[in-house]
From TrEMBL:
This is Deoxyribodipyrimidine photolyase. Keywords: Chromophore, FAD, Flavoprotein. Residues 6-132 form the Photolyase/cryptochrome alpha/beta domain. Its cofactor is (6R)-5,10-methylene-5,6,7,8-tetrahydrofolate; FAD. Gene3D superfamilies: 1.25.40.80, DNA Cyclobutane Dipyrimidine Photolyase, subunit A, domain 3, HUPs. Belongs to the DNA photolyase family.
Length: 479
């Protein structure tokens, strides 16, 4: 292509990486100087507290990576259109490139902005990269959206292979003069006092390098045995890639291709099971794309008549991991401590909130959105609706997890509970998931006083189950 003198703006959003960043690569091919930009938009809504911590460190990583290419990251806050127009005026840029996003507010902003800038004579191009396939192009044989996961998986598995991930550019052409930028330290993304994220760095290294290392560690380790081991929270058997994918530090195409050609030493069922989880993420975005109010409205509107309880005391006990059910409390405390929760335990704690406490799934979804480092608008909403029974291809509401049996099945020795609920550390394995059934002598020996050092159950499982089924029956009768 002919060498151009006018700069191109690359607007980074949830694609905080240099490798396999199609908008960035296209900007390099455009021929002119490249101006990387990150906007802290108000219109799209703030990130949750935990993900703001992640964003801070991810941007630090991106800034350092760009500096190695001879470039820098321009920072701005506010309305996207005003910011871009000001930057275009200041730099003489004639093109704006970005990678697509799929949350409703972001898509609405991009659609209007793309047309306005094109009307002004600018070149505006958008690219894929946050998903394996564009939601608008994946359709059933009848031309509609998928509502069931299994045929969706089959369509993607048997369809076109995701593109091979592209390497990062080694250098970026800088503009003659860099535009003004806000100071990163002024953004204050990290928590103050108390520093509730102080333990996050024990397991997380945000940024593109951290994402690639996490993927390599997983492929070399836990991917073998993934199908069986992934359900046991005491095992380090999951990829922990979700927060890296959420902010685009690694592309799903890079993750997909990292699992190719491994069948010689890793069982094909382990690879397939992991890929199905990656495609479940795609399915969630497919649902969000076709049902933009997924986080606010029941997919199945029969649940609009459900009789949710307003119980702030129980909700507070759930958020603090003080329900009296150890597997639930361990999960909620892991969430506090590390900004994440094991996938199996997420289902258990969500089921407990929705079905044992009869608290609206939307309250749980909002809590996870604020406390998860991997908070994701599609996966978060779709998974909560899946547990509630109100979503697409959902688990039926009458499937009510028994937190005692779930703990005994998936944390048989209580290692996960002991790690995150240390007051139960010395309790005998027989009672680790039901301390309320332990004899006084056993509790005393373990240094436990129910109601003092560890709470009694805030609800009786059998009675809660009956209450939940009665509430569900009322909805069925109503409809």
């Amino acid at each position: 292509m002919p060498i151009k003198s006018s700069p191109v703006i690359v607007w980074f959003r949830k694609d905080l990486r240099l490798s396999d960043n199609l908008a960035l690569l296209a900007a390099v091919e455009h021929g002119g100087p490249v101006i990387p930009l990150y906007i802290r938009e108000k219109a799209s809504g703030p990130l949750g507290g935990a993900q703001q911590w992640w964003l801070h460190h991810s941007l630090v990583s991106l800034i350092a990576a760009l500096e190695k290419t001879g470039s820098r990251l321009v920072l701005a806050s506010g309305d996207a259109e005003k910011t871009l127009r000001h930057l275009i005026s200041e730099t003489g840029a004639d093109a704006v490139f970005w990678n697509r996003r799929y949350e409703p507010a972001g898509m609405a902003t991009d659609k209007v902005l793309k047309q306005k800038l094109r009307d002004d004579g600018l070149t505006v191009r958008s690219f894929s990269g946050h998903l394996l396939h564009e939601p608008s192009r994946v359709q059933t044989k009848s031309g509609g959206p998928y509502r069931v996961y299994t045929p969706f998986w089959r369509a993607l598995e048997g369809g076109e292979e995701p593109h091979a991930p592209a390497d990062a550019p080694k250098s970026l052409k800088a503009p003659p003069t860099w535009p003004k930028s806000e100071k990163f330290d002024d953004w204050n993304l990290l928590p103050g006092k108390p520093d509730w994220a102080r333990d996050f760095s024990d397991i997380w290294t945000p940024g593109e390098t951290g994402a690639r290392e996490k993927l390599a560690d997983f492929v070399d380790g836990a991917l073998g045995g993934y199908e069986e081991d992934r359900d046991f929270p005491a095992k380090d058997a999951t990829s922990l890639l979700a927060p890296h994918l959420a902010l685009g530090e690694i592309s799903p195409a890079a993750v997909w291709h990292a699992t190719k050609g491994l069948s010689r030493h890793i069982a094909s069922n382990d690879i397939s099971r992991f890929r199905k989880e990656l495609v479940w993420r795609e399915f969630c975005y497919h649902l969000l794309f076709h049902f933009p109010e997924l986080d606010e409205k029941n997919w199945n509107d029969d649940f609009d008549a459900f009789g949710w309880r307003d119980d702030e005391k129980s909700f507070d006990a759930w958020t603090r991991g003080m329900t009296g059910y150890p597997i639930v409390d361990a999960g909620m405390r892991q969430l506090w401590q590390h900004g994440t929760m094991h996938n199996r335990v997420r289902m258990i704690v969500a089921s407990f909130l929705i079905k044992h406490l009869l608290i609206d799934w939307r309250k749980g979804e909002k809590w996870f959105r604020d406390t998860l480092v991997d908070a994701d608008p599609a996966s978060n909403a779709a998974n909560w609706q899946w547990v509630a029974g109100s979503g697409a291809d959902a688990s039926p509401f009458f499937r009510i997890f028994n937190p005692i049996l779930q703990g005994e099945k998936f944390d048989a020795y209580g290692d996960y509970v002991r790690r995150f609920v240390p007051e139960l550390e010395k309790l005998d394995r027989k009672f680790i998931h039901k301390p309320f059934e332990a004899p006084e002598e056993v509790l005393r020996k373990a240094g436990i006083e129910l109601g003092e050092t560890y709470p009694r159950p805030i609800v009786d499982h059998a009675k809660a189950r009956e209450r939940a089924l009665a509430a569900y029956a009322a909805v069925k009768n109503h409809t």
